[in-house]
Each structure stands twice: as C-alpha cells, then as structure tokens.
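Handoff note, outgoing to incoming analyst
You'll be picking up this chain. Sequence as last confirmed:
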Amino acid sequence: MQKYQNYSSSAKIPHFFSYFCQRMRKAVNIVLMVMLLIACSQPKNDEAKTLLSKIETLYEKGLYSAALDSIELLRAHHPRAIEERKKALVIWQNASLKMAQEDIGLTDSALRATSIAVEHETNIYKRNRLSVRRDSLQARYEALCGVVRMIHLKMKKEK
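Most recent structure output, in case you need it:
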C-alpha cells in the first residue's frame, strides 16, 4: 500500500488521472441512473393510459361502480399521471352523478309504494313499521338529492 501512496504523491500526473477517472465514473453512473429512471417511467404512463381507457369503457357500458373502483386504482398506483387523473376526475363526477340519479329513482319508487302501503294498512303494528320505513326512505331520498346538488355545483364550479 505504501508503494502506491508514494508513487501517487511523488508524481502528480497519475494522481490527477485517478481523480479524473473517479469523477468520470460518477458522472457516467449519474447519467445511467437518469436514463434508467426515464426508461422506467414511460411504461407506468402507458399503464395509466391503458387503465383510463378501461375506465372509459366501463363508464360507457354503465358499470359505474366498477369505473369508480378503477379510478381509485388509478389514483393509488399512478399519482404522477396528471392528465389521466384529470380525465378520470370528470368520469368520476359523471359516474357518481349517474349512480346517485339511479338510486334516487329507486328510492322514490320505494317511497311511493311504502306511502301507499301505509295508507291502506289497518294493522297498527304493521302500519308503524311501514311508517318507519317510509321515514327512512324519505331521509335517504333527501340525502341523495343533496349529493346530486353538490355534484352539480362542483361540476359548475370547475367549468
């Protein structure tokens, strides 16, 4: 070991050359790491685009719940896919709106049927149970209408 130390200290050229080689090696390593990161980031963006097209297909087929689940996956697994997430946000709002509107229709039908059943029921126990069900459906209906109003406000605000 002393032999090499003496050689590098006595001659300035080999010392400069080893220093230069170390710096070049670091520079090459940095360039390779950057290239590796760039190469690895491209397929992720492609995965996000593929997932977005799947989300759009699910939405068009009327599978809103599956589309929302896929959007959650997109958000969790691709946080840097900004453009895809923006497009998914619009789909999220539209799917949520459609689901809420469908649910309002079903709740309204059940509410009407329960209200008619309450009017025609003669047994007090059954009538009270139907009244509780009607009140529950009424609260659900009002909450869903509130959800639809909020979605419309958010959509209007973003335009």
